[in-house]
Amino acid sequence: MSYELNDKIKNLIPYEPISGTFEVRLDANECPFGYEGELMEMAEKALKTVAFNRYPDPCCTDLRKAFADFYGINSKNVTVGNGSDELIFLIETAFLKKGDKMLVTSPDFSMYEFYASVCEVGSVKYLKNPRLDIDIDELIATVNENDIALVIFSNPCNPTGQGVSKNDCEKLLKSVNALVVLDEAYMDFWDESESFLGDVDSYDNLIVFRTASKALGSAALRLGFAVANETVSRAIAAVKSPYNVNSLSQAIGCELYKNKEFLKNRLKTIVENTKLLYNNLLRVSENVSDFSPYPTKTNFVFIKTSAAKELWSFLKDNSIAVRLMGDFLRITAGTKAEVEKVITCIEKYYNKG
Ligand code: PMP
């Protein structure tokens, strides 16, 4: 008897973020601030309410309400996932049929394409222009010419930091016979008026994703949210595994979203730190011709340089982790002190030479 892994999985490598310990972690677009003081007290109090012997609420009733109240939407439009990662996988597997094709843009969040390959869905790639943004008419044409069933992209985009305007997204939604998934993982950093969170009842082909992992500073909880009209939401709730969000995360998540003022203030600090990071990188670029930071609508900055690998390595040797992607680096805005450290180290790299 013998068993062989199939072709689609036999060469896959389990996901492993950068290994080792670093003084400064700017590689995963996380929030630099942990749960301290009042927030930690809130989490401890929430944990005490958990019925550890019981299964979690499969509908995440209280959490959906807290999330919906925070963003001023209706909880009937919300389904919760074990991080938006789970939701991406779920939507691609359940909303696509055998033989369907989906469209991804490039560069974009790599998991969209990865999950497509695992569930054997064909994917068509739309290549972004050199400014790394999307020409919406070109994208619409690609969707329609290729008979695409699902379009997914992050807005604003990880890793480029660029955003597609609400007008352009609206044009896309109205011009294609495809389900459009707008992954707004980083929208908190940009501008809520560009978001489609409040518009899902106007579209039968729209799903919006949000996450607690970025601006809300709670990546450890694994909370992702799919927002869609009631018909689509019911379908998502029906295909998800029943107890996908554990009771601890539900309890803490519920309390977290009640701290609106605190979270908005912290968000303001992260946006300021991102500006500081971008402005300093721009200053570096004035003296280095092969070093171009892109403006950003997120909590990180994407930089093009043919020295990416060497610079990444230099930063790593100085205990600073950033993300390397070919000829690009992606640096998350940390605390002010972390931003200053990474800038000093980049300057050291260019001055050593
Ligand atoms: N979408 C985008 C665009 C992301 O960058 C990430 C995380 N890097 C995710 C989704 C996954 O987020 P979560 O932690 O909610 O699974």
In words, what does this structure look like?
The mean pLDDT is 96. Helix content is 40%, strand content 16%. The strands form 3 sheets. Strands 2-8-7-6-5-3-4 form a 7-stranded mixed sheet, with helices on both faces. Strands 9-10-13-12 form a 4-stranded antiparallel sheet. The chain has 12 helices and 13 strands. The structure holds 4'-deoxy-4'-aminopyridoxal-5'-phosphate (PMP).
Mean pLDDT across all residues, rounded? 96
Instruction: Name the poorly predicted regions.
Output: none
Our count of helices gives 12
| Strand numbers in spatial order across the main sheet | 2-8-7-6-5-3-4
**How far apart are the termini?**
61 Å
Number of strands: 13
Secondary-structure element pattern, one letter each: HEHHEHEHEHEHEEEHHHEEHEEEH
Radius of gyration equals 21 Å
Which structural class should the secondary elements be placed in? alpha/beta
User: Main beta sheet, described?
Assistant: 7 strands, mixed
Strand content: 15-25%
The distinct bound ligands, ions and cofactors come out as: 4'-deoxy-4'-aminopyridoxal-5'-phosphate
Describe the global form. globular
Helix content: 25-40%
In short:
The protein is of the alpha/beta class and 353 residues long. The protein has helices spanning 7-10, 37-47, 61-71, 83-94, 111-118, 136-145, 166-175, 230-239, 247-256, 260-287, 308-317, 336-351, and strands at 24-25, 78-82, 101-106, 122-127, 150-154, 179-183, 206-211, 223-228, 292-293, 300-304, 320-321, 323-325, 328-332. The model has no long low-confidence stretch (mean pLDDT 96).
